[in-house]
Write a structure and sequence with these properties.
heterodimer, B: 293 residues, mainly alpha, MetI-like fold, 72% helix, 0% strand
Amino acid sequence: MRRSTLATVLVYAAVAILVVSIVAPVFWLFVMSISSANDLTAIPLHWLPETPDFSRYARLFSLTEGSSGKEFLSALRNSLAVALLATAIALAAGIPAAYSFSRFPGRMPLLYAVLVTYMMPPVALILPLYKVFSALGLLNSIAALVIVYCTILLPFVTWLMKSGFDSVPIEIEQAAEIDGANLFQILTKITLPVAAAATGAAALFALLLAWDEFFYALLYTSDTRSKTLPVAIADFAAGRATDYGLISAVGLLAALPPVLIGFFLQKSLLAGLSAGSVKG
Amino acid sequence: MAPSQKDRVAWLLLMPMIVIMAVVTGFPLINTVWLAFTDASLTGQGYDWNWSGLENFAYIIDDADFRAAIGHTAYFTVVSVSIEVVIGVLVALLLDQEFVGRTAVRALLILPWALPTIVNAVMWRLIYNPEFGSLNALLTQLGLLDSYRSWLGDPSSAMNAIIVADIWKNYPLITLIVLAGLQTIPRDLHEAAIMDGAGAWTRFWNITFPGILGALSVALVLRAIEAFKVFDIIYVMTRGGPADATKTASFFVYQESFTYLRAGSGAAYALTVTAMSGAMIALYIAMLRRRTT
């Protein structure tokens, strides 16, 4: 289809506006993170710092007393530990369940129950979980968050992996079965390798979900032993001695891993989206 | 395998998931239902409680504060999701055009989507800052605003300011879904329509829109379910204020349970909110079933 010159100009103008609207807020976050406090509180505002100041990043990665490094680095460690452990559990229990749903159809109400628990608002569970964690002495521990993130990650992995297994042709399994392979061998040697891309995508999505979670983490953690990055960021932002540049630096660093994973996931993202299974 | 053996294997594979979900979701959910009919408090060891029957729910029906919170949630959900759908579709139509750098611009949509919700909230809070924020600076330097405003401190603008931040982050999801839907529409349909003299508007409503409607409506309900749970962005940007203008249902339950420590009524509010979400989830599942069968 040929386009008129006017239409072409309009398309490029609209694309330019779109790109600016997406990039500008994040770019501004970066500018804030390298601007001095004077630049950020100047009126009229200095849109670019006189001299870039990367000292916040240095402070966030140092453990010297009085720097914010301890809060940031322990939150980073907690976020990584919680996300990796919860994802591992979700994969370990979710993969066999998804395989069962895919290869032995007929338990549809259960499959939909899995989806419902994934979408259910967390307020439905917060009080009893709080009481149980408190009774078990698990409040303010990584273990509590790993347990509670299973309520989100496990149904998610099950649902996503079911559609992953659905797209593996059953014929290759039948061939292996004739050769005498048992179910465990078929799953680990045949089906999972074929569905490797879907499995990897499910794992990365699960990591993103755990990395992003805030509500439970806010309720069940109270200090550097278990606070995750989202809670630490909210703390930094609510602090009285606010250094906008420092808040921006923490935010950018916390955003870096999920954004990189997001770009990496682009292709599977579309597949997941059309299966209607990716959280908004 | 024999049918009975197949059934056994199927349940065996499901067992780890079922056990975990029963412990971390099933048990707490039942416990919340029980709590909702008591006057339990959250303080101390265990619950100190008495049956209170339907008292909590009777109170909810007349609770103007809760009704206001539901109203804020409904406003947030309807306004943000409907604008996300409109912008999402418009941007998808734009990115369906041919232009240099299209792949890169499509990839750029991932940025807001992948940005953690809390980082998005903090970012916009800094942009809206009443004394030094870049929005105030930009608008005054352009001559669109006479003096700096407190976007989040003014009850009349706080919720809309939050909605803008939410839209920025979430419309790309709709765009990506619609773009995928657009690829399923055969090109010849458009070409045939052009031959018949159909204009762009007619083609949109008769070819494009029906082609993306299925994916779009699923995305819309999915977004609405998520938006109805809104908490993170509110907590960081306004903590429900000013003057409760941005207090949403989740925030209300959070305060009732963990600020006022009323477990019984907190659970009753939580169940009420869950039932409302449940209606939307049921709609979503009905739509999924229609699409897959």
